[in-house]
C-alpha cells in the first residue's frame, strides 16, 4: 500500500511526466501484421534444383524460338542494290559533290535479278548509311504544331535554321528541308511495274500529326536547296514521302519505305530500275541502297533474333549441365551450420 | 568578468522596464516572413540540392536541354515542398507549445499591487508570486517563502532530470521581512549576464532602505529557483525575476542539436561524390569527342547546317548537353525514397508490440527518424548503470539486528514473523534499528490530501529504508523545520534534529544528531558503508556477525548498509557543536574541515545491525548484454558509482565475461605519475593479451580519467581501441560525453544509453542516443533519438530494427543508383550512334516516369524485405557483423551494382539496336523498346534481390510492370504526348515480345548464375543461415550452437548459498601487487562496500540466465 503510493507520487508528480504520459499511451500501436512486419512471406532460395531447372527451361524455350525465327528470317527474300557510286558517270568520279549539285539529268539505270520468287506485297525501301537523322540539331528541327494546324503556321521557333526566309516556311525545319528526293521507276520486261505509294506512312501520322488543311508554303525557296520539293497543292496529310521521312530514324543506317509492289516477282526475273539520283550523300560518303524485300510474321530479314535466341538457349543448356555436373561432383549441403565459423570457437572473439 | 554584468532594480517599474527582454519564450526557428528564404537557404546548403538546382537551371536553356525542363523542376519542387512543409509543421507545433507557456497566468507585483498577468509579460525586476505545485515561469531570486526559516522545495526534473526535491533558501538579507512588506521591497541585484550553468550563480543583493542596511549579501544558486522547476511542499514563494524569456538558464542551454548523419548516409554521400566525378569525366570526354566530331564530321553533314564560324562559347554547348543528359546519374529520387523509408523504419520501431514495456505501457519511440541504419552498425555501447541496467528500485530485503538474521528464510525481512513480533514486543535493539532507518536521512515526507504519506528522497536507498521502517510500524510522518515526527505503533515520538553530518563520498557515511523531545537525550544516529562504520565501533563489540552478514548479503547481490548509534553527553555535544559550526562557516577547505570535525564525533559506535537493500538488475539484462557482445559490440559502463559497485554489477550482468580467462585491469592513481604508470602497465598487458582469446576489461575512475584525458589522450585512446569492455566509475556527465567523443573520434559508431539527466550530454554526443523512460524522469528519453522502456529492448532495437534498416537502406540506395546509371549508360551509348551530339533517346515523359514511378515503387516495398527471420537473428547475433563492417554497402558492393548497370545497359542497348535496325529504326519505337527493356530488367533485379516476398512485394513488382504498360497505353492514346500509338504498335509486334524475353534472359542469366554460384559455393554467413532457415531441417540443429558457452558458464557459476566464501578469484587484477594503496583488489580480500550504492556479485543472476 505504502509502496504503491510512493511510486505513483514519485513518477506522477513530476510535471514533465504529466505532459508526455498521455501522449505516449495514446500512441500505443495497434497490432497488425503489417506494423509488426509479420506479413506472411514466401522466401524462395536458390537451390541447385531450382536454378538448374530454370536454366534448362530457358534452353527448352529459347532453342525452338531461335530456330523458328531464324527460319522466318531466311524465308524473307531481299534484294539490295547499292547504287550511289555506280550512278556517278565515270567522268565525274573525282568530283561527285559538284556532280550531284549540278542541274544535269542524273538518271541512272540499274538491273536487279530476283534470286527467289517474291510474293506480293514487295516492299521497296531506300536505305541510307551514315546519315544522322538522330543528330540533336536535326531531330529537334521541326514544328509538330505547324504540321498539324493551319493557325500555327508561324510557329517555327524550333525550326532554326530553316524557319523562314522572310516568310514562314511550311513545313519548316531541317528534317523537311532535307527530304530524300531520289526516285525509282521499276519495269519488268519493258513493262512498267507500278509502285503503290499510298499507305506507306503510318495511319496515325496521316490522321493526327499532319494536317489535312495544311499546304506547303515557301518550301525550298531559299538559297540553299536541301532535298525534295513538295507539290504545294497537296495537303501535308497526303504527302506520304514527307510523313515517312519525318518519322526520324534512331540509327545512322536506316531504311525508309518508298512504296509497295503489289505483284509477285518470279525467280530469275530481271527488273530494270530507273534511278533519279538526286540526293547528296557524297559530301559525307553516305551510301544509298535500293531494297526490295518481302516480309514474314517476324518482319523483315534479320538474323539477329534467331542467332541470339539459339546462343542463349545453348548457353543456358550448357550452364544447366555444368551446374548439374558440379553439383554431383561436389555436393554441398545447404544451410550446414558447421560452415558457421563462429561455432568452432564458441564464445570466442 | 566585471564588464559583463546586469543590475536589476527590484520592483522598479521604470528603471529596468525595457532594458532586458520580456519573458516570451520562443523556440521558433522561423517567422512567417523569413520562412521561405531561410528554409530555402538551409535546403540549398546541401550539396545534392545545389546540384539539382544547377541542373534544373541549365535545363532552362533550350539550346542544350535534351529534355523538357519539367523533368527536373517537377521532382525538385516536390522535394523542396515536402521538406519545407515538414519544417513548417514542426515549427508551428513549437510555436503552439511556446504560446501555451507564454500565456500562463502568474501573479506579479506591479506598482505595489499584486496582479494577474500572462507569463510572457514578466519583466526583469518584477516580483513573482508562486503557489505550491506551479511551474516557475522564469529564473527567480527568492525573497520570501511561506516557511518561517525561508526554505522552499523545488523539483528540478525538467532541468537536470533529478526527481528528488531540492531545498532552496532565501538570502540572509531577506530573512524576517514581513509578508506584507514583500510587496514593497526595493533593492538592486548585481548578477552576471545570462549563461547556461545551472549549478552556479555569482550574484549580489543589496536592499534599499528601509530594508536593513547597506550590506551586500551574496547570492548563490541555492537562493534561486529556475525556470521550469516546480515548487513543491511550500505554500507559496516569491522571488525577483533575474533572467527572463530565452535568457534563462534553461533557455540558454536549449540548443538546437546538430542533425545527425548516419554512416550509411555518409557512404551514400561519398558514393554520390564518386559518381559525380565519374559524371564529370564522362561529360568532359564526350564533350571533347562531340566537338571534334562536330568539326570533322558534322560539317560534311550538310543537312545539319552547322554554321561555319562559331564563337568560343559554342564549344561549351555539347559538354553542357552531356552534363544534362548524364545528370540523372545522381538520382533525384534517392533522397526522397530514403526519407520515406527512414520514417517507415521509425514507425516500425514505434509500432513494435514486442518493445512495449508492459509494466508502464510505454512503447518504444523513435524521436529521430533519420538514423535507424546506424543502429545496425553500432560498435560501442556506452551504458549508464543505475536505472539503465538496474531497475533503480531499491527495496529493503534483509537485515541483521544484533546478530539475528531476519528475512533469510522468506527472502523478505518485512514478512519475517520474528521481526514483526520483535517490533510488536518493542525489543529495544530492533526499535533503535528502526529509528535509525526512519530518521537518519534527508528524506522529506509529503502528506497527500487523502492522508497517505509519500517520501521524497535524494537517495533511493534512504527512501527504501524509510519505507521499510514505515511498514514495520515506525512511520516517519512529518518533518517541520527541525522537528521530526515518528508514529511508532500509534504513538507519536518527536525528535529535534540538532545537526546533520552530511554524506560525502570520502566519509561514506552520514549521521544525524537528534534530541529526543520527551527524554531530552541526545543521540548520534549513523549509517554508512561497512568499511566506514565497522572500524568506528566501540571496542569490545563483537564484529564478526556483522562482517559475516555483510559478506553474505553481498554474495546475494544486495547493497549493504550498517546502522549504528551512540548516546551523547550534553556537554560533549555542546562542545562539539561549536567546532562544527565553526568548521561549517569556514571559508577555506571547508569540506575537509567539516569532515575532520565529524570524525571527532563519529566514534565508539554501537553497531545496531546491517540492512540489505536490493537494486535488482532489470529483466533480461545479462542476456541482452551477452547477445550484443556476441554481436561484436563493445560495452562500456559509465557510471557515477564507486568502482566496487560498478565492477560487481558488471560481473553480474555478463559485462565482463565470466570465463576464467576474463581479466579486469585497474587504472588508478591520484597524481599524474601514478595514473601514467598505471595506464602504461594496463596498456602493456592489453597489448600482450590481445592476441589471446582473452576477455580483458579495464576499469578506471573519474579522477584518473580526468588526468588521462588531459595528459595521456593517446594512451587512453589506444586503450579504448584495444579493450572490448571498460568500466568507468565516478565519472561526471561531461566526462561521459568526453568518453563518447573519444570513441567517436576513432570513427566508431557509438550508442549511448541512459535514463537520467546526467546521461543527457552523453546521449546527445553519441551517434545514437537511447533513453530509458525510467524512474529518473524522462529527461534522457526526451533528449534521446530513441526511447525504450527497458534495457532489454535494446537487443531487439539493434538486432532486428537496426539490422533490417541497414540492409534495406543498403539495397535501396544502391539500387537507386543502379537504375539511374542503367538509363544513363544507354543514353551515353546512344550518343555514339547519334553523332555525339547529345540527343536523348528517351522522351521527357518517360524519363520522369522512369525515375518517379516505374522504378521507385518496387524498390520502396523493399522496406518489408527480411533476409533472415527475427528469431534467427536473435539466435545468431554474430550476423550483425555484416552490418557493422558495412559489408552490404561499400565501394566494392557499389562497384558490383555499377558493373551490373553497365552490363544491363549494354544488353538492352545492343539487343534493341540489333533487333530494331533498318526499317524498324524509328526513334519513338526504339526508345520505348529500350525503356521497356529497362523496366523488365529492373523488375527481375528487384525480384532476384528480394529475400522474402509478401503480397505487397508481388503487387509492387509485377503490378508495376503491368502499370508500366497501362500508363504507356494511356499516353499512347493521346496524339499530343509525343508517343502516339507507339505502345499499341509495339504490343502487337511479336518481335517486341521476343526482344523483351531476350533482354531478360541475357540480362538476368549471368546474374542468376553468379549469384547461385556464390550462394552455393561461397556462401556468406547470412546465406548459410538463410538456407538453414528455409530448408527447415537444420534450423533445429542451430539451437545447438548456443549451449557451449552456456556450459562453460554453468561450470563457473558459484552456487550462491552453499559456498559464500568462495569468491571468484579470476578477477584478481594483474596490477594489484604493483599499484599502491589506491590499487584495490577485487579478489578474495573483502572489499568494503560504500554507502551510496553498492551491489555485489550476484550469482543469482546466473541462475536467471540458465533458467531462461
From TrEMBL, chain A:
It is a multi-pass membrane protein. Keywords: Membrane, Transmembrane, Transmembrane helix. InterPro entries: CDC50/LEM3_fam (IPR005045). It holds the Pfam family CDC50. Residues 1-17 have a biased composition (Low complexity). The keyword Protein biosynthesis does not apply. One of its GO terms (cellular component) is plasma membrane. Signal peptide: none annotated. Residues 1-33 are annotated as: Disordered. It is found in: Membrane. The chain crosses the membrane at residues 50-72, 307-329. PANTHER family: CDC50, ISOFORM A, CELL CYCLE CONTROL PROTEIN 50. Belongs to the CDC50/LEM3 family. This is ALA-interacting subunit. The lineage of its organism: Eukaryota, Viridiplantae, Streptophyta, Embryophyta, Tracheophyta.
TrEMBL record, chain B:
It is an enzyme of class 7 (translocase). Residues 103-165 form the P-type ATPase A domain. GO terms for biological process: phospholipid translocation. One of its GO terms (molecular function) is ATP hydrolysis activity. It catalyses: ATP + H2O + phospholipidSide 1 = ADP + phosphate + phospholipidSide 2. Keywords: ATP-binding, Magnesium, Membrane, Metal-binding, Nucleotide-binding, Translocase, Transmembrane, Transmembrane helix. Its EC number is 7.6.2.1. Residues 781-1020 form the P-type ATPase C-terminal domain. Its cofactor is Mg(2+). InterPro entries: ATPase_P-typ_cyto_dom_N (IPR023299), ATPase_P-typ_P_site (IPR018303), ATPase_P-typ_TM_dom_sf (IPR023298), ATPase_P-typ_transduc_dom_A_sf (IPR008250), ATPase_P-type_domA (IPR059000), HAD-like_sf (IPR036412), HAD_sf (IPR023214), P-type_ATPase_IV (IPR006539). One of its GO terms (cellular component) is plasma membrane. It holds the Pfam family PhoLip_ATPase_C. Residues 1049-1070 are annotated as: Disordered. Mg(2+) binds at residues 384, 386, 755, 759. Residues 8-73 form the P-type ATPase N-terminal domain. ATP binds at residues 384-386, 462, 503, 527, 559, 639-641, 730, 736, 758-759. The chain crosses the membrane at residues 47-64, 271-293, 815-833, 897-917, 929-949, 955-979, 991-1013. Signal peptide: none annotated. Its main location: membrane. Residues 1053-1062 have a biased composition (Polar residues). It is a multi-pass membrane protein. The active site is at residue 384. It is found in: Endomembrane system; Membrane. PANTHER family: PHOSPHOLIPID-TRANSPORTING ATPASE (PTHR24092:SF19), PROBABLE PHOSPHOLIPID-TRANSPORTING ATPASE (PTHR24092). Belongs to the cation transport ATPase (P-type) (TC 3.A.3) family. Type IV subfamily. This is Phospholipid-transporting ATPase. It comes from Actinidia chinensis var. chinensis (Chinese soft-hair kiwi). The lineage of its organism: Eukaryota, Viridiplantae, Streptophyta, Embryophyta, Tracheophyta.
